[in-house]
Amino acid sequence: MQTVLTVIAVVLLVVLALVALLAGRALWATRHARRRLRELGELHHREVALLLGRASAPRDAKPAVGTLVRTDDVVALVPATTGQEVVVPLEAVTAASTTTSFRGRSFAEPVLLLTWELHGTGDAAVLRVADPDGWVEELSRPR
User: Could you write out the three-class secondary structure of 74-126?
Assistant: First the structure.
């Protein structure tokens, strides 16, 4: 009987340690994202977004949840967890539009397609946001 209780206690301790580790990691990531958003400056437009794909990334890259923001100088996706941040100077943005397909993938609803060129190299990303047309309008405004 004592062996069974010992095994149960060890299993509970391992589960509690894993929960504490995951909660600590999530808290760190949230603090990091908030700090990064403050560093970007005054936010003119902000929305939770899902990065569905990027032209320069592998096709099988996982979607990334984050906050899409526009400041005076940049449009940026700050990931909610550790991940690749996308920061594009506004003067590098070549187009913002909506689409229902990207790199051979189709989407049920329109998504935001953002294209830019930096240092002679073009790139593009598709993001699921609540109001893709609003983002197109926001990114098309004169700076």
Answer: EEEEEECCCCCCEEEEHHHEEEEEEEEEECCEEEEEEEEEEEEEECCEEEEEE
